[in-house]
Amino acid sequence: MTHTPIPFPEGFLWGASTAAHQIEGNNTNSDWWVKEHSTGTHIQEPSLDACDSYHRWRDDMDVLSELGFTDYRFSIEWARIEPAEGQFSRAELAHYRRMVEGALVRGLRPMVTLHHFTVPQWFEARGGWTAEGAVDLFARYVAACAPVIGEDVRHVCTINEPNMIAVMAGQAKAGDIGFPPAGLPTPDEETTHAVIAAHRAAVKEVKAINPEIQAGWTIANQVYQALPGAEDVAAAYRHPREDIFIEAARDDDWIGVQSYTRTEIGSEGPIPWPDDVERTLTQWEYYPAAVGHALRHTAKVLGNGDVPMIVTENGIATADDTRRVDYYKGALDAVAACLEDGLNIEGYLAWSALDNYEWGSYKPTFGLIAWDRETFVRTAKPSAVWLGGLGRTRELPRIDG
C-alpha cells in the first residue's frame, strides 16, 4: 500500500460547514423553535442556547482559521432577518454582514446559505412553501439580503437539501414522525415543485444583487446502490427523492454534494442495514466511500464538467474521534480518486465545524470542534487538527493498493 497525495486544484475550497439554527441559539421566531416546544414530536430536547454562536461566531472562525481551513460555510437566518412578514431587521442584516467581514479578516472565504431548513413562524403559518405567493416571499427575502452578500461573497447556496424539505413535508401531510429503517419516504410532489421554483427565483435575485456571485444549492445524496437485477427499481426510487433536484441545478454555477452513508436497493426496495455492520451515532452504516459514489452519480446526471461540484457536507456522528479521522481519510481518498478521474470538484467542506443541535438532539456529535455546555469554550478535536492541517499542505491523501 502506497500513499500518493493529490494536490488541491487551483482555488479549491477547504473548510467546514454549519447551519444557523443548529449553532446560534435562541432562534425564537423560527418554525423549529415552535416544534421544539411542542408535544407529540420526535424531538428529544430543545435547541435553547445551542453553541451560542450568534455571539461567539468570532471564536468559531478563529479556531477554523488557526487550524488551516480556508473556507467557512454558514447560513443566515430568515426568521431573524424578517421576524414579521414584510418587516426586515437592519440590525440582523448588519450582524450577518459582520460575519462575512469577520471571515475575510481571518482568511476564510465565506459561503453563505440563505435557507437551511428553518423558516419564520409567520411563513409556516401561511402554509409554508406550497402556500400562495410563497416563492415570491422567498425571493423578496433573498433580495433583502443584498447588504450581506452583495460584496466579497463568491459562493451563495439558495436552499440546503431541498429534497429533504420535500420529504419532511410529505411526512407532515401523512401525519408520520420518524423515518423507515432504510431509505427515505416519498417526497411531497407539490413541495418539490415549489422549492425548485423558489430556488430559480432566488438565483435570479442573487444575480441581480451581484452577477459575479456563484449561485447553487445542495442535495442530500443517499447513495442508492442497486443489487444485481434491481437497477430499474433503484432508478425509480431515486428519481423523486434525489435526481429531480440534481437536474434542477443544470443551469447553476455549482451544485453542492452532501453524503454520509449508502442505501442498498433490492427488488422490493431499500434494504435495512444488517445488524452486524458498524453504525454511527445516527444509526447509519459507517461507509466513508459514500461521498465518492455521490460525486460520480451527480456528475453522471448533470454531465461531468457541465456543473462544478462542491462537497458541501460530509462527516460522521461519533463519540470516538479516531473513527472520525478514519472516516475522513476514507472519504477524502474517494474524493481524490474522483479528481484523478477528471471529475470537476471545486471544494470539500466537512460537516460539521461544531458539535451542534442535530434537529432534536445534541447527542449525535458530528463536530470537529467540541464546546462546553456551561462555559461555551471551544476545543478543537484531534480530527480538526488533522483535517485543518491538510489546508496547509494543500494536498488530499490518496491511498493506492
Automatic annotation (TrEMBL):
SUPFAM superfamilies: (Trans)glycosidases
Keyword rRNA processing on entry: no
Pfam families, alphabetized: Glyco_hydro_1
Keywords linked to the UniProt accession: Glycosidase, Hydrolase
Keyword ATP-binding: no
UniProt similarity note: Belongs to the glycosyl hydrolase 1 family.
PANTHER family documented for this protein: GALACTOLIPID GALACTOSYLTRANSFERASE SFR2, CHLOROPLASTIC, GLYCOSYL HYDROLASE
Name of the protein described by the UniProt record: Family 1 glycosylhydrolase
Species whose genome carries this gene: Streptomyces durmitorensis
